[in-house]
Amino acid sequence: MKVMVFHIGADRYALPLWAVARVVPAAALKAIPRAPAWVAGLLDLHGEPVPVIDLSSLAGVPPAQLWYDSRIILVDYRLDQALGDGATRPLGLLAEHVVGVDSVDGEALLEPGVAGAPFLGRVSASAAGMLQLVSLDQLLAPDVRALLFQGAGAAP
């Protein structure tokens, strides 16, 4: 399976490449009042406001520092995970040290058992080190989805 690899602190994480719509340089973001601390803000993407999540803050490490290789990974986020009706909106994921595309053996992925962080998915162990997948389906709680995607049919 092809994945987009990035760092959160010193650890390596990845998104399945099929989930990545676009990767853009880190840019200035507009703050969202009353949003959780790990919501970095809104990105102006060709006139469309796109909410951006700081993956470092979400994972419980200090907020992302912007580096020359920091990027906003844009994904098509499904608004209603429970119904799976297919409605999507762009969501940005602020990631430090985006490395690029790599391959992992999908059949060799292990379950991590991280109950406190349901967005952290299966783990790959190789000579390059451990790599943990981020599960978009578990990334946002329903109340945060409603906050970020008001008026877009997000479940309350």
Structure in words:
The protein is mostly beta strands and 156 residues long. The chain has one domain (2-148): OB fold (Dihydrolipoamide Acetyltransferase, E2P). Helices cover 7% and strands 45% of the residues. The chain contains two helices and nine strands. It has helices at 55-58, 142-148; strands at residues 2-8, 11-16, 20-25, 39-45, 48-54, 71-78, 88-103, 120-126, 129-134. A hairpin with a 2-residue loop joins strand 4 (39-45) and strand 5 (48-54). It is globular. The N and C termini lie far apart (34 Å).
What are its keywords?
OB fold (Dihydrolipoamide Acetyltransferase, E2P), nine-stranded mixed beta sheet, 45% strand, 156 residues, 9 strands, 7% helix
Brief overview, please?
With 156 residues, the protein is mainly β. It has helices at 55-58, 142-148, and strands at 2-8, 11-16, 20-25, 39-45, 48-54, 71-78, 88-103, 120-126, 129-134. Strands 1, 2, 3, 4, 5, 6, 7, 8 and 9 form a nine-stranded mixed sheet that branches.
Helices and strands in order:
Blueprint lengths: L1 E7 L2 E6 L3 E6 L13 E7 L2 E7 H4 L12 E8 L9 E16 L16 E7 L2 E6 L7 H7 L8
Number of helical stretches of at least 4 residues: 2
Look at the structure and give the mean pLDDT. 78
Order of helices and strands: EEEEEHEEEEH
Q: What's the CATH architecture? A: Beta Barrel
Task: Supply the CATH class.
Answer: Mainly Beta
CATH superfamily: CheA-289, Domain 4
CATH topology: OB fold (Dihydrolipoamide Acetyltransferase, E2P)
How many domain modules? 1
What is the strand content?
Answer: 35-45%
Question: Largest sheet, if any?
Answer: 9 strands, mixed
Rg to the nearest angstrom? 15 Å
How far is the N terminus from the C terminus?
A: 34 Å
Domain CheW-like: 1-145
Pfam families: CheW (PF01584)
InterPro entries: CheW, CheW-like_dom_sf, CheW-lke_dom
Protein name: Chemotaxis protein CheW
